[in-house]
Structure formats: C-alpha cells, structure tokens
Amino acid sequence: MVLDAHDLGPLDARFKAVPVGAWGRDAAEFTATRPGLADLPTPLVTLDARALATNVATLRAWARDVGVDLAPHGKTTMAPAVWRAQLDAGALGLTVATGWQLTVALREGLDWVMAAYPVLDPGVLRWLAQPRTSRVLVWADDVATVAAMAPHVRGAAQPLDVLVELGGLGGRTGARSTAAAVEVARAVRATPGLRLAGVAGYEGAFAHDASPASLTVVRTYLHDLAGLHRRLLAEDLYPPVPGGVVVTAGGSAYFDAVADVLAGLHDPAGGVRVVVRAGAYVAHDDGFYRGITPVDRLDDAGPLRAAAHGWARVVSRPEPGLALADAGKRDLPFDEGLPEVQAVRRGGHADTTPLEGAEVTALNDQHAFVRFPPELDLRVGDVLRLGLSHPCTTFDKWGLLPVVDDALAPQPVLVDWVRTVFG
Predict the structure, then answer these.
(1) In the chain, how many domains are there?
(2) 294 within a domain of the structure (yes/no)
(3) What does DSSP assign to residue 359?
(4) Is the pLDDT of residue 38 over 80?
(5) Which of helix, strand or coil describes residue 290?
C-alpha cells in the first residue's frame, strides 16, 4: 500500500508528528532511513501499515463474497491516499458526509461519490450543475429539501442523482414513514435537473450495541428500506438511471445485517446495486468498534485490527500512583471511551512491552491522567502505547500521520506518511 511519503516534499513544523530533526528534509528521503519511534516526537498517533492493508482486504473480500458493493465512508479518514487504497482494492466509490467533503473527493478525481447528506449549499449545487464526468449521488428526506435544491440545478449539464432517505421515529435524518418517502420520490421525479436514483438509510441511528434486541431493530428497519425500494419500483417512479439504481445502508457496526437483508436486491446487470458504506473498518479501533464489529458475528470473515495507536510520554509523577502523560484531547479521541494503556517503552527507547494495570482516567487538553499500582513504577520519560476508540475522531486531530510497519512490534519503524484533509 503506497501512501503519501513520495508526494509530501520537505517536512516542517506545520505538522506536529514531524520531529525537529526532520525539518527541511524530503519526506521520502527521511522515511527511507526507517526511523524508529524513538526518533519521532510525542504526543503521537501512528497508523499500522499491516493493519490498514489487512482491514482493506478483509472488507473488500467480505463484500465480494456476500454480493454487495462497497463505497467506504471517507469522512473517517479524510485521507485521499487511503481512499485510493480502498478503491484500488475494488471499492465501487466513496461516501462523504458534507458538501465540502464532496468537493474534496471530486477534486481528487474520484469518479463515483455519494454524499450521504442533503446537499443544499447553493454554491456546491451550482458547481455540480456544471459539466462533469464523475457520478454524484446525494440524499433527500423531505419535499422541502427537493424544493431547496431545485433552483440551483435547473438547466444542469446532467441530472443530479438523488436517493430518498428513509428514517424512523427517534432516528436522525430521513423521512419518518414510507408514505412520506414516496412523496419525496415523486417530488424528485418531477424536478428538472434531479433524477430519482434509489433509496438510502442509516441503520446505526436505531441501535448502539450488538444485543439481539438491537439487531432485531436494525433488521426491521432494513426490511422497511427494502420495502420502500420495491414500492418505488411498483409505482414506476424510477427513470432510466445510468450506472444503476442504488439501495444503500450500512455503517461499520451492522454491515452484516445489511447484507443479510438487502443483498438479494443486488443485481448490477439488472440495474440495481446494493451499496454498503462502512468506513471505520479501515482503521478499526480498540474500543467501540472492537466491541460491536460484525466480523465477530461472521464465521468466515478475517479479523479486523486496530490500525491507529497513541503514544504519550510520561512528563510528571506528582503523587504516588499518578502519572501525567503529554497527550490530551487535542491529540486523542475521547467521545466513545478514553484511551487504554496497552504497553510501555521504558525511557522512550526500550522495546515495547505489554503493560497491564495502568488506566487513563481523564484527559485535559494536553495531558492524560494515568493511574497505576506501585509495582508498575512508571517513570518520567517512559512512553506509553495507547489503544484508541472511534477512528472518526482520531484522524481529524492530525494533518499528517506517520505510518509504521507494525505498531505491536518491539521496535516499530516508520515506513510511510498519510496526509489528511479536514479543512
């Protein structure tokens, strides 16, 4: 997997992951020296090259085996090099979450992009109305949404594909009933510059764990989504759609259920594609997704590995059993659980060895509070490896991420870099 090192040019202090000793050096040349973690600064988040490659291959193989397409959610990483790796592995296209993210993906030259979002920014809509070669799909869940889009796409060089989003009571966005969704579809069909191109939804809005009750709720919603698609077919509301009608669901928590319920609709030759939008799988995690990942419910799926890890240096031992490390909310995710202490590099340079019994109990902006029993004897200068929860709020804190060969090795080495684009 080739990422960004060869395109970065000289490294400098704009990126907090770049060590002082590398300022002014070409990124590819510096990386070729295979620096170790001791040569990189803290706080730090690294990506694991082996885990990234494994995760990309695992989800692509799963999608192929169950018979659906994959359009990974790009908001997880906002890293064009990672997007390219996913596409090179066979993904149909990319999903984004905002109008701005859509423009980033199109400027990167992607030729199939779905905005899982009602794009209403007039400037973006007028931009999309210009001649383009990429297929773009956007969502709408209300007749008012369609009306707001209409004046900006009238006279477009080609129609803008619109998917009707079905939601549900207590959910997020989405029409609250099949009847309401059908009215949206009729409005799209009647609006010049728009083309009804399928149905969409997000099952993760209705459940937050893998309990039998939650899985039942998810599956019921997915059956409703399939029913909406069949209703639109029965009423002959779909026009001819180049590239096929799209039925899409599937975040990173329940993509197995999506395949179980919807894969039977997948018929590219007949003009229908079922598209799964999972995105967090590419980095996975050591928290929320580790606990809910569908691969644990599948007999024949390969493993997903956490690809992102934090590294924090002990900078203070102000009282017994308490260490302060130099990574905080500006560096590490905390919205789906605090980082977990996994290992230690004594003095910041010794081999990485497992560490059990230490716990991150709080994060300030730039500090982690680490509690530990006396026998662990953490010292100023020790570097901790931290497992992280929720990749979507990990990548956004880093404009440039170092990629190591294997974060779980005794002495990981730098092999590449990943550039992110978060505006």
Answers:
(1) 2
(2) no
(3) E
(4) yes
(5) helix
Answer whether 414's CB lies under 8 Å from 19's CB. no
Q: 3-class SS at 102?
A: helix
* Whether this model's pTM surpasses 0.90: yes
**pLDDT of amino acid 301:** 62
- Taking the C-alpha atoms of residue 402 and residue 34, their distance in angstroms, rounded to an integer, is 11
Strand (E) or helix (H) holding 160 = strand 160-165
Asked whether residue 29 falls in the same domain as residue 111, the answer is no
Cα 349 to Cα 27, 48, 403, distances in angstroms:
23, 19, 18
> Is 298 part of a structural domain of the chain?
no
Assess contact for 372 and 417: CB atoms under 8 A.
Answer: no
* Percent of the chain at pLDDT exceeding 90: 93
Using the structure block, give the residue that is written with the tokens 């395109």: 7
How far from 164 is each of 98, 172, 182, 197, 388, CA to CA, in Å? 16, 14, 8, 8, 35
Region 217-224: mean pLDDT is 96
Mean pLDDT computed over 205-222: 92
Contact 318, 81 (CB under 8 A): no
Within a domain: 360: yes
DSSP symbols for 89-128: TT---EEESSHHHHHHHHHTT-SEEEESS----HHHHHHH
* pLDDT beyond 70 at 300: no
Is 90 exceeded by the pLDDT of residue 119?
yes
Task: Indicate whether 35 and 85 sit together in one domain.
Answer: no
User: Amino acid letter at 45?
Assistant: V
**Taking 80 as the threshold, does the pLDDT of residue 302 lie above it?**
no
Determine contact, residues 367/328, Cβ cutoff 8 Å. Answer: yes
- The pLDDT value recorded for residue 251 is 84
> Which pLDDT belongs to residue 286?
97
Which range of residues forms the domain containing residue 33?
Answer: 10-48+304-419
> Are the beta carbons of 253 and 289 closer than 8 angstroms?
yes
Determine, yes or no, domain membership for 18: yes
pLDDT at residue 32 above 90?
A: yes
In 138-211, alpha helices (H): 143-153, 178-189
At 284, list the tokens.
């996975």
The CA distance from 251 to 101, in Å, is 18
C-alpha neighbours within 13 Å on the C-beta side of residue 396: 14
**Six token digits for residue 122:** 């007039």
Q: What Å distances lie between residue 183 and 125, 142, 177, 228, 234, CA to CA?
A: 22, 8, 10, 11, 14
Comparing 36-45, 289-298, 362-371, 386-395, which segment has the lowest mean pLDDT? 289-298
